[in-house]
Design goal:
By secondary structure, the chain is of the alpha/beta class. Strands 1, 2, 3, 4, 5, 6, 7 and 8 form an 8-stranded mixed β-sheet that branches. Helix 1 packs antiparallel against helix 10, helix 2 runs parallel beside helix 3 and helix 10 crosses helix 11. The longest helix has 14 residues. The chain is globular, with a radius of gyration of 19 Å. The protein binds S-adenosylmethionine (SAM). S-adenosylmethionine (SAM) binds next to loops.
Length: 278
């Protein structure tokens, strides 16, 4: 996702997005052990609005908190610092499935690792899940805790691939690389997930596969999400973006999108939510 502004725009226009993450945090509150010093990582923080306005205010008031939001997309660091900066909240560019942890650990605030690691709607973008979880494990302090959630169906990645197969998009997006990671394609997603994270060393406290019905206030709000998640969206001429998004919605209508009489749009997904410890 490169279009950080578009994505935070989407988050603003869709109050359900913040509410879903607030509910996820509330549902797991009793499992957390808090310390007087909390060093917190938000993996795949996007533009930083969730890190700053959902995660940070949720952390215990009486702890000393340092929060780092990281994202593979370099535009997010600047966006986060510019729009969602705070004396306790920092942003950095970091690939959780990369080989370079130094970009985090060379900062003395984060050298000793994190007491808590969160990640919301990110791991379905990752091609090497085992490496990503190894990194999360390394970055976590002993007794540290992880809460994450991500959809397994990869419906948006599939959608963009399908769009790229037809004109005029195949010409406009010629050579654009779109990879759908090779996980959770068949069989039991929970078993596959558990086998990866337990191999890495995590103790899994809870792991659920749930069907969610993501609500968008309007088709326009859903289009904002569809545009912001597409890493090649900026290659589409501005004058054709409306048509591109309309065709995306047409494809979704044939799959898992329902439009209610009041204009609300519901998209059905399957999502893994896990709480794990080191
Ligand atoms: C759907 S957005 C979620 C943003 C934010 N967590 C939220 O819930 O609003 C997914 C984010 O994951 C980031 N991402 C994808 N692959 C990543 C990777 N390998 N390392 C770090 N971030 C990644 C994307 O750039 C994008 O900003």
């Amino acid at each position: 996702m490169q279009e950080g502004d578009l994505y935070s725009d989407f988050n603003k226009s869709n109050p359900n997005k913040f509410r879903d993450i607030q509910e996820l945090l509330a549902d797991h509150k009793s499992l957390f052990r808090w310390f007087s010093e909390e060093v917190v990582l938000d993996v795949g923080c996007g533009p930083g609005d969730v890190t700053r306005h959902v995660l940070y205010p949720w952390l215990p008031e009486n702890a000393n908190k340092t929060v780092l939001g990281v994202d593979v997309s370099p535009v997010m660091k600047d966006l986060g610092n510019k729009k969602f900066g705070h004396p306790d909240v920092f942003f950095e560019t970091f690939d959780v499935s990369g080989k370079n942890l130094a970009v985090i650990t060379e900062d003395e605030k984060f050298r000793d690792g994190f007491t808590k690691i969160f990640s919301f709607h990110v791991f379905h973008w990752i091609n090497d899940l085992e490496l990503a979880f190894q990194n999360v494990y390394k970055l976590l302090k002993p007794s540290g805790q992880v809460l994450l959630t991500f959809p397994i169906s990869r419906q948006y990645q599939r959608l963009y691939k399908q769009m790229q197969e037809k004109e005029p998009w195949s010409t406009i997006l010629k050579g654009a690389h779109r990879e759908i990671p090779n996980y959770f394609l068949n069989g039991d997603a929970t078993t596959e997930f558990l086998s990866i994270v337990t191999k890495v060393g995590f103790k899994v406290v809870t792991c659920k596969l749930i069907t969610t019905h993501d609500e968008f206030p309007s088709i326009e709000a859903l289009k904002k999400l569809v545009g912001s998640l597409d890493i090649h969206f900026n290659r589409i001429p501005t004058s054709m973006r409306g048509q591109y998004l309309e065709e995306c919605i047409e494809i979704m209508r044939k799959k898992n999108l329902k439009e209610l009489d009041n204009g609300t749009v519901v998209v059905t997904e399957k999502r893994i939510t896990a709480f794990m410890e080191k």
